[in-house]
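Write out this protein's structure.
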Amino acid sequence: MSIYCCGACKVETQMIRKSIFGLMCVFAIGSTAVADVVNVPASIDNTLYDDGFGDLSNGAGDHMFVGINGNGMRRRAVVRFDVAGSVPAGAVINSASLTLSMSQTTSGPQTQSIHRLFSDWGEAGSHAPGNEGGGAFAQPGDATWLHMFSNTSLWSTEGGDFDATASDSLVINGPASYSWSGPQVIADVQDMFYMPASNYGWLIMGAETGVDTAKRYDTKDNTNTVVHPVLVIDFTVPCVLTADINNDGVVDTADLGILIGEFGLSCP
């Protein structure tokens, strides 16, 4: 009987081990994921003022402008976000939206679009007076209509180097918050995440015909933090469970104990 019992114990032990191994293998090849949303603040923003000389900017201003002013001069806003520094490594971007607060206008509905920028640019200490629509004299390092960085480097094309195809377009009417999103915005953000060295942000422009179509947006330097530009990113971080949870080189009941203790958590 003792031999039979011992044999049965061995069989039972082997069965338990096989069950544990099978369970651990299931979790070894299985995976779960952690989803999250992050609100990324603008790292820099500015306005490109079409003055013909590249003298104007508003790097430290409270506002940026898009459209054509009452004198028929174009205005384009530029904004950039540190995507790679705000989303965990290995994440998958599920959705993204760029939200700006439009705070003043004298025009009716205007279609305004965001375009991926292809060249680096800067902001410095220029701060336009009053409503800021006329700009201020650019300081060294400011982006202008002619310069990526005043006054040492020029855009390849006056008014900024950007993708002619819009990533998204919106009809902008009265003062409110507006959000650009969609498949191409997601693709832009994915590129910004995986290739941060070529993340130059977006340029915002309107239909540049007519007169007095400009819209005023609030910048990251505005005293009201609620109206700052924000890039909202929804992402998922894949989480792969490995069999040797405690990393001791053996898959055994110690690993199973850890697994049971962590069971049900989103990413143990």
